[in-house]
Amino acid sequence: MVMLPVDEKEFDVTPFVYEELSLFVHTTHPFAQREKVELRELKNENFILFNQELIYNLIIQECLQAGFRPKIAYEIAEWGFISEMIGENIGISICPKPIAKKMNQDLIKVISIKNPSIPWNLGFISKKRKHASPAVREFIQYISAQLPIKL
Questions:
Q1: DSSP character at residue 15
Q2: Which pLDDT value is given to residue 147?
Q3: Where do the domains of the chain lie?
Q4: Nearest to 52 by CA among 21, 84, 18, 87
Q5: Mean pLDDT per 10-residue section of the chain, whose length is 151 residues
Q6: Residue 135: what pLDDT?
Q7: For residue 121, what are the contacts with CB-CB under 8 A and spacing of at least 6?
Q8: Nearest to 87 by CA among 39, 24, 42
Q9: Cα–Cα distance between 38 and 48 in angstroms, integer?
Q10: Angle CA(30)–CA(104)–CA(81) in degrees, nearest 5?
Q11: What is d(CA 35, CA 73) in angstroms, rounded to the nearest whole number?
Q12: Distance (Å) of CA 50 to CA 72, 92, 112
């Protein structure tokens, strides 16, 4: 499983999640009254980031392209702990939108990011011209039958 896009000349790709990263803030945060924010508006905020390499690097890269290096207050390995920290108004986070289902929506507001939006597209890949095991083929066939999945 990887974040897309990948080189489709080298890999067979089965996409299965089409989402975007969103801004998560405490309900008292000034951005909580808005439906959308521009990424560059976050340059003075304290970030609480999930420390998984792919999402972490994607957020850093997008912030740099928007003209700033994010001020990272905390790097956390658990979504629940990130939720608790936002719920205590310790900072903001950028997370996949489906994570909102696991957060306290009385304390946390999810806001779309624009200019740019940050895609969070996931898929399964396998090397072209490699034979997958029957179990892998069955799994990919099952996922393909469920497409597109929007969490």
A1: E
A2: 59
A3: 2-146
A4: 21
A5: 80 81 97 97 97 88 96 93 95 91 89 91 80 80 65 44
A6: 87
A7: 3, 4, 5, 15, 17, 18, 19
A8: 24
A9: 18
A10: 95
A11: 24
A12: 11, 11, 18
Q: Which two tokens stand for residue 16?
A: 């299965």
CA dihedral 32, 57, 20, 128 (to 10 degrees): -170
- Pairing label, strands 36-38, 118-127: unpaired
Query: Using CA atoms, how far apart are residues 142 and 138, in angstroms rounded to an integer?
Result: 6
* Contacts of 51-54 spanning 24+ positions with Cβ under 8 A: 51/75, 51/76, 51/77, 52/77, 54/2, 54/3
CA distance readout (Å), 117 to 33, 88, 150: 19, 26, 16
CATH number of 2-146: 3.40.190.290
Q: SS in 3 state form for 68-118?
A: CCCEEEEEECCHHHHHHHHHCCCCEEEEEHHHHHHCCCCCEEEEEEECCCE
How many CB atoms are located within 10 Å of the residue 17 CB?
Answer: 18
CA distances from 41 to 2, 65, 87, 112, 148 (A): 29, 13, 21, 12, 32
